[in-house]
Every structure is written in C-alpha cells, then in structure tokens.
Amino acid sequence: MRKRFALVDDDPNVLGMLKTVFELEGHEVTTYSSSLAALEGVTQNPPDCLLTDIMMPELDGTELTRRLRQIPALKDLCIVVVSGKVYATDKQRALDAGANGFIPKNRTNPESIVAEVLALFSDTMSIGFWGTRGTMPMSGPQTLRYGGNTACVSLTFPDGHLFAFDAGTGIYALAGHLMKLGKKLTGTVLLSHPHWDHINFLPFFTPLFVPGNQFEIVGADQDGVSLEQLVANQMDGMHFPITPREWGARVSYRSISEGVHEIGPAQVHTMLLCHPGNCLGYRVEFAGRKIAYVTDNELFPEDSDMHSPTYVKRLTEFVGDCDILITDTSYTDEEYPKRIGWGHSALSRVVKLAKEGGVKQLYLFHHVPEHTDDDIDKMLNQALALASGSNLVCKAAEALETVSLSSV
Ligand SMILES: [Zn+2]
Ligand SMILES: [Zn+2]
C-alpha cells in the first residue's frame, strides 16, 4: 500500500538516496534537511511515517522524536530513527523518546533500510499459542489438537521484541522455538498471577540463561510479596536447583498494578481481574491494533449476589474493540453451577462480554484438564451459535498455532 514518508537528514546524499529508494517502491516522500523544518512541516502535513537521522544541528533526532510525541494529533505517527550511531544507549534513548524503531544505517544499504522500515511500519505482529490449558498440564491422545500445556501465549512485534504472557508449561515449547532461531532476544514476560499453571515453567525458559538476551518480567505484587520474590521463591535452590542469580540474560523486574504502561514497543493497559489474589488482565495496543490477554477471570451470572455490574462494565470497556481477546472460558454453562467462586468463567457469559465489547475475534482459553479435544470442539460450536448474528468470530487455538495480526 502506498504510504507517505517524511525523511529528515542534514546529509543531502543520504536524503537523496533514501528518497529514491522509497519512491521506487511506490511511496510518497517529503524530505527535510533540517529538524526544525521537519517539526513544523510534519505538524502541518503529517505523514504516515517519519525517518530521522540522530546527529543533526538544531534538534537532534531523539529530541525531534520527543517533541513530535508531545503532539496529540501525531499519536499514530510511526517514527523511526536511522542513525550512524550504533551504541545501545543511543538506541535506548531513541526508543525512550517514543521512536517505534531504530535502524543503524552504516551497516546496511538504502534498500535494506527501506525493507526494515516497511517491516517495522507494517502490522506484522504474530501471536503464538504455546499453552492453552488451565490448572494443570494434561497429556494424552485426548488433548493432542488443542494441546495439554498450561498457559503461555507469545506476541512478537515487527522489531522482534517478544512478549510472553504467562509461564505455564507452554513456555518450554516457546523456549525451544526461540533457541532454534539462534538470535539475541529482547523480551518481556508478562505474568497474570502466580498460580502454578501461570508461572511454574519460568525456570525452564532457556532464553533466560543465554548471555546477551534481555528480559523484563512484569506482573503484580501479592500481599506484600514482591514480583521478584514471587519468581525467586520457586527458584530458591530447594524447589528448583538453579536460582535466578544463575540466569545469563540481563533480567529486570517491574511490579505493576492497574494502569497504562510503556512496555517494549507497545502501550500496555492492565486491569485487576475477578480471581483470587492480584490477577492482571493485559491489553496491548500497537500500530492501531488491540490484543487482550485476560485470564484467569470469573464472570458471575447476573442473578448471583457476586455479580458486579460495575466490574462487568469496566471489563467490557477494557476489552472493547479488541482485534483479539484471549480469555478464560474454563467451563460450559452446564458445568459452571458446580464451580461458582472458583475464579473462572462459563462460556455464554464470555461470549456476551465479547459481543458487547465489540471484540473482533474471541479465543477460548484456559481449558480445564478434563476437557478433551472433542469437548472443546463442542464448546467452540456453542460459542459460534451464541455469536451468530453478530460480527464476533470465535476460535480455539490449536496447539502451537501461530496467528499473524496482518490477517485479522
Ligand atoms: Zn489458571
Ligand atoms: Zn489462577
């Protein structure tokens, strides 16, 4: 698709070369040889994407990025810093200022810069379903299609940044996939809550042991126990022989609660869910896309004393207009009455939430151990029937399935 680019560089040769390559690809290009001119021009005539050099007189590219990010009308502008400076601190400064990407220009040619920019700018996030089961892993012929591993879903951004939601047994399969890629990794593990089925395979997440990788672990503290301590408790040398001190990757922690957070290349909204302890639901917003990972969560029936219209309204808004909602559909409506107060939802309540929120695709998730593939097929058919007449698409991810956001 034809896009409008603004190029900012005080070197006329670089500017001319990049302009030619973008135009050959069929894009519209405006060039600026000064960052102050770019600030004014882009504000008046916003492009889809701005590429800026770092080292320029007047404003440098990082400062230009920071100033553009303060203009609300330009919130969807994709900003890419292309620079001869290759130090990690320069990249971090650019990303901290609000750049969507950073491309070193002296290790690559103009054609590959354009290819990298288009990849960054494109909406090519992919979601991987590595574990969709709740409570405990369940192996055997009855769970081959939808999988028996507990919760782990990955989201990969165009710049390669990885999000791993939860660290159930599924994270071991994700680790195998990542190790085969053989690349240095930058990523975030986003924990919903510290029940076993969501954290107990973090010690087996091999990329944490690889020097050069960088990970942030994000989640909520619990009753005075910090997130870092929660992770360390299961790797105390007794429950697992290796402690976090032996991780080779650079690992940091961020304790969060409800709010809006800048994590990796995305804006992440969080909401505390209806489940024992502090359990966070996540909504990731990136490049105009919204993906929500909301588990574990109980939606009480409307005639129950426990039903809170305020909570349901907030959650409906939280998942509102999401491209994809991955959420707890543990029980059938028939099973649920025997499981009230267990912290998980029945199918019809979830479909109603997704319909009312205007969700585009609902993924049934956190399948209970006793549900076979055939049972999940039946639940999916029930969900499809409940959603008929609306625009909601209902799915259940197959084991290890990957979904590209560009196809949604
Ligand atoms: Zn769970
Ligand atoms: Zn739980």
Task: Describe the fold and architecture.
It is a single chain. The chain is of the alpha/beta class. It has 2 domains: 4-121, 3-Layer(aba) Sandwich (Rossmann fold); 126-407, Ribonuclease Z/Hydroxyacylglutathione hydrolase-like (Metallo-beta-lactamase, Chain A). The strands form 3 sheets. The protein has a 7-stranded mixed sheet. Helix 3 packs parallel to helix 4, helix 9 (309-318) crosses helix 10 and helix 10 crosses helix 11. Helices cover 28% and strands 24% of the residues. It has helices at residues 12-24, 35-44, 61-69, 88-97, 110-121, 170-181, 196-199, 227-233, 309-318, 347-357, 373-387, and strands at 4-8, 28-32, 49-52, 78-83, 101-104, 126-131, 152-156, 162-165, 186-190, 214-219, 250-255, 259-263, 266-272, 280-286, 289-294, 324-328, 361-365, 393-396, 402-404. It contains 11 helices and 19 strands. One zinc ion is lined by residues 193, 195, 275, 296, 343.
Tags for this model:
single chain; 408 residues; alpha/beta; 2 domains; seven-stranded mixed sheet; 11 helices; 28% helix; 24% strand; globular; binds zinc ion
Outline of this structure?
The protein is α/β, with parallel strands linked by helices and 408 residues long. The protein folds into two domains: 4-121, Response regulator (Rossmann fold, 3-Layer(aba) Sandwich); 126-407, 4-Layer Sandwich (Metallo-beta-lactamase, Chain A), CATH 3.60.15. Helix content is 28%, strand content 24%.
